[in-house]
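Is 1-deoxynojirimycin placement plausible here? Inputs below.
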Amino acid sequence: MSKTAVLLFILLSATAVTVPAAESEATVKARVDKLLSQMTLDEKIGQLAQVGGLAFLPDAPKPEEAIRKGQAGSILWVSDAARINKLQKMAMEETRLKIPLIFGLDVIHGYRTIFPMPLAMAASWDMGMIERVQAVAAREARASGISWTFAPMVDIARDPRWGRLVEGAGEDPYLGAAVARAQVRGFQGTDVSSPDRMLACAKHFAGYGAADGGRDYDSAYIPEEQMWNVYLPPFQAAREAGVATFMAAYMDLNDVPATGNRFLLQDVLRKAWKFDGFVVSDAFSVRDLTTHGFARDAKDAAFRAFTAGVNMDMASGVYQAHLAALVKEGKVPTATIDAAVRPILAAKFRLGLFEHPYVDEARAQRMVGAAEHRKAAREAAQRSAVLLRNEGGALPLAKDPAKTIAVIGPLGDAKRDLLTMWSGFDLDPSKTVTIVEGIRGKGARVEFAQGVQIAKTYSSMFDQMVGGPQPKAWTPEQADAEFRKAVELANRADVVVLAMGELALMSAELASQSSLEFPGRQRELMEAVAATGKPVVLVMVNGRPLNLVWASRHIPAILEVWHPGTEGGNAVADLLFGDANPGGKLPVSWPRDAGQIPIYYAHNLTHQPETAAGFQSRYWDQPSKPLYPFGHGLSYSKFAVSNLRLAAEAVKLGGTLEVMADVENTSSRDGDEVVQLYIHQKAGKASRPVRQLKGFERVALKASEKKTVRFTLGKAELSYWSGQDRAWIEETESFDLWVGTDSDARLHAGFRVVP
Ligand code: NOJ
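Reply from A.M.:
I modeled the complex. Tokens:
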């Protein structure tokens, strides 16, 4: 455990509020039965409604009114402790049965202390860290009255044009599953009645990351083989980790909207996985079944979503308006209403909301943004950074107060843009440490020039809602003058740190883009600054891979820090000066440009792989490989992985195989290496991917230290879902195995699965 982790642990244990021990499941069931027996149909339907605290639609019910009438089981988009207490008081004092509300919010990477964006945290390959920071997020949020987060977002995404890549764990189901488990553990802990924990929600169920063209909300067409082998495993992992709730996605999956999709909500979730928690729709997605051209009208939408298995209607008010009539007409049996309400009430009992409906506002004040939380955020940002290139040891920079460091670029002194869209609708970005501030904090002499202004061509509703005040656009003359100023600054500086990439709202919901080029004139500025001949380091602040082909040839050091969160600037400075050593690895293959999309390492072999003799299939205009492979990331230390050994050459069906390799820090600087294990099944009932990640470990190594890393391959790692058998199968076949430090790992061995 790191120092921060220990401190956090002590803090978490020391200040915990005492609550009664968690209810036993039998007690919860008895309490649910009793309460349900007292409820009218309208009261039951009220529990199935989640009401928005921000009025998006002119005709949306105001939460106060809905609460008083018993027409709200949950409230979303309210984040302030005082307002939460006020609304809760209405539920507890002005309704007949005094059923507390659950307040839900998108606490996806922090509540007030904002951690790196989720994709960045996946890039840490550090599951312990992810669990710890999501526990901090839960702690801040629950203290403020939010007992349900709409996270983890576990959608596999292989198209970086899709804006919501930023919210997930990238392209790989194995890494995605590990990250999903860590997040669920972090949010929920072992007892959600604890004042430091909250319910988690695995979203968006399922296949949302495969939207056509990377256009948000667009249809996804995913064959069942790919569904089970690629898109579902992180959800299944969340389920196995005990996630309390699921959220149905917006888009059509194979022509059926996920919110009305019985394959997803019944066959997979309830039957195959035996999920007994509750499902919430996405915002307005029940109503929007009509817009999709799936439901005839709002009543039909209520019928289809409800009977498909959506327990709670998020914000659209359609259940509230139509479910009672559907029951009266005999189309929806009361028993199914009861079945839908049960897990919602059970969750409220488990959370302890009936006993502790209110929060202590003073405690909430003390809790949010606590120094220990910021420390955790700084460490998380350090550990999430990926050093993509470091020619000639350009990094770390020497600490020399006599030298001038020029920070140049639109992200250099940005606060809001070090966070993401999902950083709270009412967030105060002034608490964010910018890159300039971080570097200055190291005692360095810093000058800053923005150089270019960047903006989206088309804005979305989120720009108005959470974008904050927009800077006035520069005139063309101003733009030229600012550009020149930046190049002049580079000329007089000793070192240049380019801080370039994307604004926060260029990623996330409603923020897809067609190209991977740097927005605005950033690339032009990058070239002009490089032409000065000064040592240049590129710090990337962005939510998705951008085209780095030119930079990867001309800028000696490229440090990917993503949207690094509240402590981003401090963490960047730690990394630039070597007070922290980068150890993150890409959770996505980094395309050369948008023309390569989709590109992912776990593709199948063709009949003529490029590596074989003969007429290989490839792009004739550029390499077929991505610019940086999945799993890539450098360090200021040097490592060697060697001595791969398998406990046996063959493993029996259903048995386990131990794999070991040594990893050595061959440098004089302490650092971390992520050792990764990939396999390939060479034949079988289906073509299997050329490589699949099946093990990894982030290992901390002191200078010259050597450790042995151990992996276990078992049934879970060696099976896949076969379209022929329509089942998970493990086959008696030969496998290749590689261990190394990215998905091009070279250390190779073979083994067989035998009867
Ligand atoms: C819509 C988004 O798709 C979902 O991820 C989010 O949780 C809800 N809105 C609530 O904010």
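Short version: Confidence is low (pLDDT under 50) at residues 6-19.
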